[in-house]
Model the fold of this input.
Amino acid sequence: IKPEPKLYNGIGVALDMQDQYRMAQAYYRVGLKIAPNDLSLRNNLGLSLLLGHKVPEAVSELKRVAQDVHAGTRNRLNLALALVLAGSADRALSVARMDLDPKEAEQQIAYFETIRAMGDAPAARQAIQAHFRGLDNRRRNGATVDPMDGISEAR
Done:
């Protein structure tokens, strides 16, 4: 039976949602050994690295994803998030403007800056997880999604 990269991706996502980042990253990496060009695995590895506070490594992985010919808006916004968390908001804004109009790009980067300002607070982790799940400040099916949906107040 041939190993299926989607299986490793799914297990990795589930582990990330349980705050088991190192284990999740191990699953993503096994999946990438099977399918080294799988954007979903590499993208989720990058986001997992962000959740695990490995920002420089996350930027590197997400940059590889964003530069791929098959990358989309979501992939580039994930890189923008990583760049903001790395302290490079200007570079992040340039990346966001590739897909969003100037006002939307500025709003998205401002939201990412809010996450960065939270530091290591549980709310910051929740915000990154919400972004991971797709609850960001972009239009979806014609509706604006509140980036703070599903995020509880920091206690």
